[in-house]
Write a structure and sequence with these properties.
With about 300 residues, the protein is of the alpha/beta class. The chain is built from eleven helices and nine strands. Strands 1, 2, 3, 4, 5, 6, 7, 8 and 9 form a nine-stranded mixed beta sheet that branches.
Length: about 300
């Protein structure tokens, strides 16, 4: 039977976590799914620990990333997208835990909505997971459209890679940029939503992310230069896309110029100004803004400190 949902799980040297993640998928109350495990070149015993699962559950398949896809998470996920048979797509990581009702609730919401995605809440945990789930189906919801793009850019409305189920057509003309090693989902999901795909967000925890030092996010906050450079490249791509779709406004420009203060070694501000290609007076306005911004931020923080 054709699967309704395709789960794409890229993996790399996570033999010590992946079995627990797969078992949480097998515990789903919605059973018509396929799980494509895309191995990005693991050197541990991932293949061996998965063999008992693969022999019993044919919904789970194990693939080596094809050579025409670039090494890394984006390339592995793109390969999974090309193999996917389901009408709905969801990306799970190889070290996390999925709520048993995840697929059931997301499919139900997408079947009764006109939208193209269902976003939900993702919690985090450290160490061993406490398998005590809330099975309630009472939750609030709200719609998400291109009008929310600023909130998404600022992560006020977070779009974690494992906290959204998508209709497959969202990826017909949108794929992960395979050169990005950080913020690849932020760049892609911003591009998808800016192209007009709307959806729903539900106030229900359906995924649990494991926190540990070897994650991409952990490396970014430890100032890994590869992750930092990737974030800068993702920002440039987001700005180019928003300009193309005529969605850039002063609020968004303000935000990215403020972010560029933390990436002076990557010349992010200069790259932003080049993309904007503004008339001289408007260009001067933003250059002055950039020059005085550190002083403004200093006094703002001082004011907040005194007030508190």
């Amino acid at each position: 039977m054709k699967p309704t949902v395709t789960i794409i799980m890229a993996t790399y040297n996570r033999a010590h976590y992946i079995v627990e993640s797969i078992k949480s998928i097998q515990a789903q109350t919605f059973e018509n799914w396929e799980c494509l495990i895309i191995d990005d070149g693991s050197t541990d015993n991932t293949n061996e620990v998965l063999k008992p699962i693969l022999e019993i559950d044919k919904r789970v398949s194990y693939q080596k990333r094809a050579g025409n896809y670039q090494k890394g998470l984006p390339g592995s996920r793109n390969y999974g997208l090309d193999l996917a048979k389901g009408d709905y797509i969801i990306f799970f990581d190889d070290d996390d835990i999925v709520h048993p009702q995840n697929l059931e609730i997301c499919v139900s919401e997408l079947n009764k909505q006109d939208g193209y995605f269902c976003r939900y809440i993702r919690n985090v945990f450290h160490g061993d997971f406490d398998f005590k789930f809330d099975y309630s189906k009472n939750y609030s919801s709200f719609n998400i459209t291109v009008k929310d793009i600023y909130k998404i850019i600022r992560n006020e409305l977070g779009f974690n890679s494992c906290a959204v189920m998508w209709k497959k057509e969202c990826f017909n003309n949108n794929r992960f940029v395979e050169t990005l090693m950080y913020a690849e989902e932020w760049e892609l999901y911003t591009r998808v939503i800016s192209s007009g795909f709307n959806g729903i967000s539900i106030d229900k925890v359906l995924f649990y992310g494991r926190k540990h030092d070897k994650s991409n996010t952990g490396e970014f906050y430890r100032l890994n230069p590869v992750r930092l450079q990737s974030y800068v490249e993702a920002i440039i791509l987001v700005i180019k896309n928003l300009k193309k779709r005529q969605l850039l406004n002063s609020e968004i420009i303000h935000y990215f110029i403020q972010v560029s203060l933390n990436f002076k070694e990557f010349n992010l501000f200069q790259s932003i100004m080049k993309i904007l290609n503004l008339p001289p007076l408007k260009s001067l306005k933003w250059r002055v803004f950039y020059f005085v911004l550190p002083l403004r931020l200093f006094f703002y923080r001082l004011y907040k400190k005194i007030k508190s």
